[in-house]
Specification:
About 45% of the residues lie in helices and about 15% in strands. The protein is an alpha/beta fold. α3 (about 75-85) crosses α5, α16 packs antiparallel against α17 and α16 crosses α18 (about 405-415). It is globular and about 65 Å long.
Amino acid sequence: MDRRDFLKTTGMAFVLGTLGAMTAKFSFAATDNIDAEGKITRRRYKDTALTMPLLGYGTMRLPVVSGGSAGDVDAAAVQKLVDRAMAAGLNHFDTAYMYNGGQSERFIGNALKKYPRESYTLTDKLPVMRMNSAEDAERIFNEQLEKTGAGYFDFYLLHALNADTFQKAEEWKLYDFLKQKQAEGKIKKIGFSFHDTPEVLERIAASHEWDVALLQINYLDWELYRSSEQYEIVTKHGIPVMVMEPLRGGALAELNEGATKVLKEAAPDASTASWAFRYVASLPNVLTILSGMTYPDVLEDNIKTFTPAKPLNEDEKRTLARALAAFKESSGFIPCTACRYCSCPVSVAIPEVFAAYNAYALSDGKNKDRFLKKYNEIVQNHRADKCISCRTCIPKCPQHIDIPMELKKVAQAVKELS
């Protein structure tokens, strides 16, 4: 594949064209930006009085004391971060039952106690994956209210829904449980966070009346992991989007040398992270974008990016597309989009193998242990080394990937790293 073909397969058309196409196709649940001098840009929730900061505070990785584990949260550091965020107009916080070793809810609740309850919004989540029965919901919910001291949740989500956890949620009638708490005034808006395929998302979105959905969206996953389809589905159903992983676990904040050079030549003073945030902020149905800001310098850079938020212009979209191509090209990235057209006669799990390897490749080789763990979760008879090089998959691949060659590369990497 030459460079021109590579660029075509890496989603340049999506980076340049999809935002405009979706704007024309749908009426959006979130509305235009609301800017105030010296404050983070806000967006209105549908046709209501509620406005949300376009940048939200994710609290999965609160700062910990020196040498401490995830649960050893540094309360003083958290307070300083929260105070700075509130002063900038960043007044939405997202927590969950398991974050920071189960301590996030309590520490973020303590940091917010000095502020009037109506001056901020708070999201919490019901950990369906940790539940053993429907009866667990009441206990966990009450525990979360006690930990946060919030009195009510502005947004309350079924956490990390996929095909399996959604089935449990339906069997246990957890949506009805949330509606009951909403009627009691303990929840303002109901939603879900999601980790699965667009096909599963369509079932979930159509199953109930949802107020919000929390999705993983960034410019790398937009086509590669079908985030564009997920965004389109919830937008079609009139559900505003909260965004997680806009930096894809930090990978888009620390690009490789080639990609960084492209962005720095275009905007020397802009951080690489700011490009990723502005890409997601250009999506009109996005209500807020969560970022886990553990350190003050990260918080300050993000505040700068969103004060005010500026959507990418056409030249910047082209620049970002070039950077994305350079990122993939120099990292050994395999441009598989998991379309699954490449049915294998010996049942090699081609998309799963490539997904595991790509997470490693895009980290510049830093996530070796994570790669091997993910790879070893694939059933042994479906792994890369089972490829017989029959090449029947090659003409089926829309991305024109030499699949047997790439499988051989993955198998060799596993051998060398194990």
